[in-house]
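PT: before anyone asks, these are the final sequences, not the draft ones from last week. 381 residues across everything. Please model them as a single complex and drop the result in this thread when it's through.
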Amino acid sequence: MRGFAVAILLAAVGMPSAQALAQEFNLVIRNHKFEPQELRVPAGKRVSIYVANEDVTPEEFESATLKVEKIIPGKSKGLVRIGPLAPGRYEFIGEFHADTAKGVIIAE
Amino acid sequence: MFGALIIVFREVIEAGLIIGIVLAATRGISGRGHWVAAGVLLGTLGAGIVALFAEAIANAFEGSGQELLNASVLGAAVVMLMWHTVWMARHGREMAAEMAAVGAAVSAGKRPMTALVVVVGLAVLREGSEVVLFLYGIFAGGASGSSLFIGGVLGLAVGAAFTALTYYGLVSIPPRHIFTATTVLIALLAAGMAAQAVQYLDAAGVIHVLSHQLWDSSPWLPQDGIIGHVLHTLIGYTDRPTELQLIAYLATLTAMAALAWLAAPTRARRVPA
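LR: through. Structure below.
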């Protein structure tokens, strides 16, 4: 009985906040560049960004303002969870190729 | 080449500082070099394994595997540092007396060297796996790889020099104060790690409470600069901390102080003889 109640509580509280409320976006890394280089996301919400690395080399998605550091191995996909963000511009780079891999997330 | 040097150096700063502190904290203990070397070796091995399975780790736990691994590694290091602090609070005084009396090495078996080996190993593992992946990327990228690779190796060398600098800086502290100094440093190190761990849990989507940013000191002292990065490792400096990070930081510092106080036998012994 108690287990059941806990399960209901988890379903009611935990799941929506973790998944259903997060909006999903996609980014691609190709030739050490992000596509698109500018991504608009809603402010004040949790956002999931799927970063697909199409290069053979690994990349590190890094942003000081977003407080994210995530390694995305070559030819694979990584999930970056951010937010809720205040409206504004948030720059990010691919640390392993910082001279070309640059982008910005705009929360509005 | 210079870019590669900076990237690798930035990654090894953290492990380098921790190794320097551990070496200073274990000064005078026989065989500590072997213990620390074992930690570095195991950490390097672990870094290779983590890098090898980077994709599987990243995809685990609905895409949060990397964050959860980082949080666990940091959490484990905090626990090991607490264990060491408790042990030092209990035995540090006797050991200092023994060292002064004998003027020689204290046997390593008495000290929880395993705790410190694990801390060194975890630090090398966490930072090392990024270095391994970065250097692998250079190889996989092919063109102009050799100059980048030399940069990477030079970055490692500068990191090693930095470790030596930390160590000699710390051991130049008078022996009377070195126990206190290293205990305080280890407490701050642990607090910083705890604050980092909760941020990884937030990024993993495990917790999202108290995630508001408290302040932004990045214009004055950016965390991704060299000084900011060193302070980040040493005392847990964060330029844009969240409420939860500050709470984790203060809670860990309080826990460290409380554990040291509770474990210290000196309260009973302070009675004048």
